[in-house]
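> forwarded from #structure-qc
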């Protein structure tokens, strides 16, 4: 049990190259990620070797330009790769999404010289990134951040603490938002900080409900000196860069959420068709059949929503509202579907012998990261009704 193998998602992909890419990702997920996911999550093991493999096979730079080590893939394809990876293990899928988010600032706002110097190693050279915006006292209110960068000759000195940093302590580079000017969003600037710079350190990882294999930690910057050549964009442009990165990053979270939900549905269907009660499979009972039908429908709706937003992005059209909608809907769907999967499995769903309980614990964080779902509702409402009156 389960005795019914899950069927691969029937994906609408734009090219033969994309179909080959998904086949490669499924092979890696099946043979290199899924077999050890439960054991390694239970042990809190971070699978750096998997990220090295993904980098070597070109999967850490999919939506970026090939001239800098990327793969020129549209977001429509990249997000479906994330979904496949997250279905196998959320630590990996979310890790790829965070790395892509961390590379966004330089890839999009960096100078030609910066992109040539840094992107090949970031996208295909085995490096792993982290995104440093949140702080202990500024989460949803990110524009109130206190980490400061002060001019010092031809460089900057960065001092402060970032919080809730995925890959904190294991990343090779940090994309850091620091205050260089006035209070509020216009006084923030973005920097690319190497993890081995003097003064960079990470606290012990947080002890979390789920995703125990993915380190989340505070990162301290104690008088870290970086040259001006590692400033990304203009002074004071950092908050705009951060928000633009998050619009794309929210689509990554949405895709990961649907991956987790799909894995939970597959587990529930397999269990329900194999488990016998009252002389027949429990999938024969209408109550469970309707649950499975609702789960599948919610997943398909979420997948369609994040892909619609991705296609807007690929076409160069505004997509911030749709990204917020996708993040909101898909992560709420993941939470509901994983809870229902545990219910389908009954007592077994509450044990670590089956992955349903892990999916449920992991789904919760997706409603929080990269803007809580309450923040997503605020973003959507602003697009509909304008800014709040003060």
């Amino acid at each position: 049990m389960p005795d019914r193998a899950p069927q691969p998602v029937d994906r609408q992909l734009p090219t033969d190259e994309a179909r080959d890419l998904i086949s490669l990702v499924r092979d890696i997920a099946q043979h290199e990620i899924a077999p050890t996911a439960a054991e390694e999550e239970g042990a809190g093991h971070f699978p750096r070797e998997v990220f090295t493999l993904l980098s070597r096979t070109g999967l850490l730079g999919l939506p970026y330009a090939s001239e800098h080590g990327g793969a020129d893939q549209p977001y429509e394809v990249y997000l479906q790769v994330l979904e496949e990876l997250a279905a196998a293990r959320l630590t990996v899928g979310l890790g790829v999404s965070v790395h892509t988010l961390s590379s966004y600032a330089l890839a999009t706002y960096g100078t030609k010289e910066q992109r040539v110097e840094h992107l090949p190693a970031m996208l295909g050279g085995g490096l792993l990134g982290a995104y440093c915006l949140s702080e202990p006292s500024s989460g949803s209110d990110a524009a109130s951040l206190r980490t400061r960068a002060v001019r010092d000759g031809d460089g900057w000195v960065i001092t402060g603490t970032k919080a809730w940093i995925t890959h904190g302590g294991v990343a090779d580079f940090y994309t850091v938002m620091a205050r260089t000017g006035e209070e509020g969003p216009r006084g923030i600037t973005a920097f690319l900080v190497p993890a081995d710079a003097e003064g960079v350190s990470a606290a012990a990882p947080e002890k979390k409900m789920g995703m125990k294999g993915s380190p989340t930690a505070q990162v301290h910057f104690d008088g870290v000196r970086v040259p001006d050549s590692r400033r990304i964009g203009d002074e004071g442009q950092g908050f705009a860069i951060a928000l633009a990165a998050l619009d794309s990053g929210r689509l990554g979270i949405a895709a990961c959420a649907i991956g987790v939900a799909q894995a939970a549905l597959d587990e529930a269907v397999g269990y329900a068709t194999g488990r016998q009660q009252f002389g027949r499979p429990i999938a024969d009972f209408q109550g469970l059949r309707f649950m499975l039908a609702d789960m599948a429908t919610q997943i398909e709706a979420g997948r369609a929503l994040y892909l619609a937003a991705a296609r807007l992005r690929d076409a160069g059209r505004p997509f911030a509202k749709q990204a917020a909608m996708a993040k909101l809907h898909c992560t709420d769907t993941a939470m509901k579907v994983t809870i229902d999967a545990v219910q389908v499995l009954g007592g077994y769903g509450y044990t670590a012998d089956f992955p349903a309980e892990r999916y449920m614990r992991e789904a919760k964080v997706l409603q929080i990261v990269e803007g809580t779902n309450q923040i997503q509702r605020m973003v959507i409402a602003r697009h509909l009704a304008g800014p709040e009156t003060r």
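QC bot note: The chain has a mean pLDDT of 96. The CA atoms of residues 105 and 241 lie 6 Å apart.
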